[in-house]
Design a protein that fits this description.
Length: about 170
């Protein structure tokens, strides 16, 4: 029993680190990956970037620009597909290449979040915003599955397209 309980407790503790929920905010933090071990090493985290899943102030970004595409939001998923304006094929291998996060002033409207939650499945939102892309490729987002992160500073428009599902 003890052999099963300890790994379970460790897993639960890791999942709840930080003490506050960031579900649906689409923010996370991973250091850019590189060829040497030191680039992937755990570094001090004085700003709480890894535990609060907040990239702002932790990595370098390109200058803010207007971006347009679809936001794919679901369980442990917040992806951005630039240039898309319709529900994409869910089997596309590049759909999770860019993690989408939100600055405090760029959070989605609560009414939109309500519509997304009402779907009870992965939602696709057509979105236009002012945001910043990570300067360096790395391991961003949930479990480091995205090559880049984009932070939304201000939403210009956002409209629910529907659920992400096979046609």
């Amino acid at each position: 029993m003890r052999r099963v309980a300890l790994p379970t407790l460790i897993l639960l503790a890791a999942c709840s680190a930080g003490g506050e929920s960031t579900a649906g905010t689409g923010q996370g933090n991973r250091a850019p990956s590189g060829g040497d071990v030191s680039a992937n090493s755990v570094t001090p985290d004085p700003n709480g970037c890894r535990t609060t899943l907040n990239y702002d102030g932790c990595i370098e970004f390109l200058p803010a620009e207007r971006m347009q595409g679809v936001w794919i939001s679901g369980f442990e998923r917040s992806a951005f597909a630039p240039g898309e304006m319709a529900i994409p094929d869910p089997d596309r291998s590049d759909l999770d290449a860019i993690w989408l996060g939100f600055a405090s002033g760029g959070l989605p409207d609560p009414a939109l979040r309500g519509e997304m939650d009402d779907l009870r499945q992965t939602a696709v939102v057509a979105i236009t915003f002012i945001g910043r892309r990570s300067r360096e490729a790395g391991d961003y987002g949930h479990l480091g599955g995205a090559e880049h992160v984009v932070i939304v500073d201000r939403i210009i428009s956002a409209r629910l397209l529907g659920p992400l599902r096979r046609q």
